[in-house]
Amino acid sequence: MIVHPIDPVFDKESKALILGSFPSVKSREAMFFYGHPQNRFWKVIASIYGEAIPTTVEEKKALLLRNHIAVWDVIASCDIEGSSDSSIKNVLPNDLSVILDNAQITAIYVNGKTAEKYYKKYIEKKINRKAVCLPSTSPANAAWNMEKLLEVWKCIKEG
After folding, report:
1. What is the pLDDT of residues 54-91, one digit of tens each?
2. Would the pTM of this model clear 0.90, i.e. be above it?
3. Where are the domains of the chain?
4. pLDDT tens readout for residues 98-145
5. Burial 19-48 (b: 16+ CB within 10 A, else e)
6. DSSP code of 24?
7. Is it true that domain 2-158 has CATH number 3.40.470.10?
8. How many CB atoms are located within 10 Å of the residue 71 CB?
């Protein structure tokens, strides 16, 4: 059983909540979200908001908060082999009230189908809020190039 080691990023001004499934090995090593150098999350967010791609954890947090974005994951703990989403078992979901009770979240987005699957299974009915599924920024999602990702992901800016 691996316990999620990264605190959520949000403040009272956060409006969009983006949820991944569970941190990859690289993210757990970096102790921050989307830590794999090939993951396009930071490029996508920076591009949507016309900002430089952040490199440090501090820059990444600042980019999110400046643009009223909260980030966390659906899963609090699970059994997982490496970073393989398909190997996830024994899921315990995160308690989103930590964010929802302390921020002005107007929209919830899930980063990819795995996050969507576990959101629908464990969270949606509990909080009575649907999430918009965005295509995964993972390098494993090779069918989506940067241009296509940006076209769909820009909805987070538009609210």
Report:
1. 999 999 999 999 999 999 999 999 999 999 989 999 99
2. yes
3. 2-158
4. 999 999 999 999 999 999 999 999 999 999 999 999 999 998 899 999
5. bbbbbbeebbebebbbbbeebbbbbbbbbb
6. -
7. yes
8. 26
